[in-house]
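Raw record, unedited: Major facilitator superfamily (MFS) profile domain-containing protein
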Amino acid sequence: MEPPNSAPAEKGSDSRHEDVAGVDRTSSDVEGMKQEVAPDRVTVQYAIDEAHQKRVIRRIDIRLLPILGLMYSISLVDRTNLGLALVAGMQEDLDLAVGDRYTIIVMVFFVAYIIFEIPSNLVLPKAGAANWLAFLGVSFGSILIGMGFTKSWGAMAVCRTLLGAVEAGFLPGCTYLITCWYTRFEVGKRLAGFWILSVLVGGFSAILAYALSMLKGTHGLNGWSWIFIVEGAITVGVCAIGWFIIVDFPSKADNFLSPEEKQFVIDRINNDRGDGLEDKITGRVILHHLKDWKLYFWGFNLLASTLPGYAYSYFLPVILKDGMGFSTSDSQLLSAAPYGLAAIIAFISGWISDKYRVRGPVLMVHQLLTAVGMLVTVYGKSNGARYFGAFLGIGFLQYCVPGVLTFQANNITSHSKRAVASATCIIGGGVGGVLAGVAFKSSESPTYTTGIWVTFALSMVSIVLIAIMDYYFYKTNQKAKKGEILVEGMRDWYYTW
């Protein structure tokens, strides 16, 4: 079995990768892997047959993706239900119309989120994926319950800060874990599938918020309080169950896979990118990885992807209610529909990008159509046109986040760099959230002129950066195929553009 997207190795040559610690790893030395040398290539055979291999991958899919997708989708609901709570009475109860109070409680979440991204991802391999992700989930669910009992905007701001601190490590942790289990051209549709669940649950959250807001007056609490309390309780329950289901990294999967199956998973990852086993994370290693300029391009790409996402989550209900004249209940329900289309488009694009092994061009198309959709949402001449803009924007937006994460994951090697890169990438997403809170000013409701044009400008810059990176990858691959350089220190390994 040849590594995907790689040229056949020459006879007698080993595919080598030198990590930052200076350890030379040879994929042909991995236990359980037999090499049969043909006149012009190396063929790798595994201890289990092909049918068994497919069953193992399917078991990993079933065990890993649904629970991570469900846990993350709930965390996404927790952080983006603020706009739904706002139109359900929170603005009046906490006096959020005064000055920039609403903008502040949106923004403080992301300040904490950015600060704790990298530290959380460095804790994950030491604490264990199940332990750490379940702990984070139960923590932010508990904080959400507390938000339902706040009586002032200051207390809400404190809760939102704590929520950002504990949610910071969740998406990078999930991404890190998923990319450690699959080869480069399996991970695109899996991250898309993981994300689709969050999209669908995110759309359903608007309907759930509407139903919960009907509890207004129960036990003396307003409807918005019940949105936080019930959704927080669901989060605690699901994430506690997740502790029993989540599997750790392949090298620690003894309770999930047989020794032969575990070795097969490690071998195929080594065969694909040379990092089936964890390398040591030290301060020097982290600083080495942070020197890679591509990490910051991916971070900006995610910023440009999350900014419109948060804008739609926080402000679409307001646009529907105040800008289009819908009632509170109708604005909540209408916020849900575009996410069904988004789930379909995200899966199709994930499948296409895996099949044709292309990332950058697909992302550029999605970001362009997202920007156009936002313009139509605000500047359309009729409610029908504006609502179509929401379908267009949300529909093509939702692939961008898993698309950027896959683009990044496909072009790095080693567990340590994967941990740092996923965290720095998602820091960009957190900055996008901060910009959403700042650029989409409450004083400009419901047109949000500044926010819309800031989003459009950043989307255009992101498209240019992807084009630059794709050109660099193409030229670097050409040099590698001529034997002039090694890509990421590996022989016969190429960037995915």
